[in-house]
Amino acid sequence: MNRPLVIGLLAVSMVPFYAHAQQPDMAKLKADAKRLSALSVTTGKSQIYCQVADLGEQIDQEKDRNKAEMLIETMEELEKQLGPEYLVT
To answer: What pLDDT, on the 0 to 100 scale, is given for residue 81?
Structure first.
């Protein structure tokens, strides 16, 4: 009869320790916020990357050489905007 009471009191007394252990670290929160802001900045670059991929597919399917060359020029201009970190060689 006393055993359930002791276990219950022990469990209730451990709640503050558990809650304290769950407090987030400020340095980790700041690092996460930095990563999130970096992601929002690169959203534009992600869209450009998708445009480059689409242009690559269009170039592969294009039969007219002049149109393909125009698409290649457009793709090269977009690749310059992306920078080397996005380009796979």
So the answer is: 85
pLDDT at 89: 46
The alpha carbons of the chain give a radius of gyration, in whole angstroms, of 28
75-83 long-range contacts, Cβ below 8 Å, gap at least 24? 78/48, 78/51, 78/52, 79/52, 81/45, 81/48, 82/45, 82/48, 82/49, 82/52, 83/45
Q: What are 83's two structure tokens?
A: 């920078």
**Number of domains comprising the chain:** 1
Inside any domain, residue 16: no
Asked if the structure places residue 3 within a domain, the reply is no
Residues 6+ positions from 59 with CB-CB distance below 8 Å? 68, 71, 72, 75
Mean of pLDDT over the chain:
77
Inside any domain, residue 40: yes
56 inside domain: yes
pTM over 0.85: no
